[in-house]
């Protein structure tokens, strides 16, 4: 089981993201049910489904209560291609888990625990210790705060968030280095660790036209088949609004710990105010799609990107470290030795 962290600042769209991920998972999972599983503890499940129910009713979630976010977790499981090829004797043992798993937890970068860690560098709280164990980091970047007015509070706040995320990434890399030397000294590691970063550009629908124009971008996101152009598009935004984070994840290998290529996803929800071309007054109302047999009356959101998110992590889950643990567990168990 590989731990994954979702990072976001106050009001950047974390809860909305979780609700939409839940929706996408329900819809997608019912089609590809054999190779993808979603599990969550009751409390998390309840929150995610309630958020989604609200969105079906055109409402965005309310602000998350203090500490509520720290209890949200869920798991993605992907059937391993490998299990089909294992000899029957392994397949039949339930200790050979046929699913590669990622357990996601969401962290509020503006929350007390994270702030205390950023300030002190001491990983005192269990929340931070859990965060540092993650091999996957999903970073939310709020497009509604992207502005070309460089002395505006929104811009300053964005750069502040950028520096906090970069600090956390450095801490994560340092922790992995230490973990790796510990493992190496016990003969358990092969001298390299990979951290898998993903960036979600949240509230993409509220990115302003003048920002796009200044960066020479068009409003249309290159579609999923144009991987390189999508990456360039996302990085054009991040280079301006999250430069330190971008430079961290592209920093190459440091003492055997490296960041994998970042994956980029766009999250948007169609809202009434955006449609009418007006500045939102209060919380915007979500536009729903026509009622369909497929999904009732659903909010209109970037479903394809959420599916791409789920599928991207299939590859990651299969490469991520729990494979190593399970392999060595196999070898360590005499009764099940393959020879
Ligand atoms: N236009 C638009 N607005 C969004 C979108 N996602 C979120 N919002 C707006 O941003 C607000 C905050 O979103 P949340 O998902 O609650 O953000 P959060 O990070 O969970 O916020 P806290 O829990 O309060 O820190 C929502 O109430 C919406 O008004 C989106 O995709 N498009
Ligand atoms: Mg929230």
Structural topology:
Blueprint: E1 2-8, H1 14-29, E2 36-39, H2 42-56, E3 73-79, H3 88-91, E4 99-108, H4 112-120, H5 126-132, E5 136-142, H6 153-185, E6 193-202, H7 209-214, H8 227-241, H9 243-249, E7 257-259, E8 263-266, H10 272-275, H11 303-319, H12 322-332
Parallel strand pairs: 1-4, 1-5, 5-6, 6-7, 6-8
Antiparallel strand pairs: 2-3, 3-4
Helix pairs in contact: 1-2, 1-11, 6-9, 8-9
Bound molecules: guanosine-5'-triphosphate and magnesium ion.
Entry summary:
The protein has about 350 residues and is an alpha/beta fold. Helix content is about 40%, strand content about 15%.
Structure characterization notes:
- With 339 residues, the chain is of the alpha/beta class.
- It has one domain.
- Helix content is 42%, strand content 15%.
- Strands 1, 2, 3, 4, 5, 6, 7 and 8 form an 8-stranded mixed beta sheet that branches.
- Helix 6 links the parallel strand 5 and strand 6.
- The structure holds guanosine-5'-triphosphate and magnesium ion (MG).
- Guanosine-5'-triphosphate (GTP) binds next to helix 1.
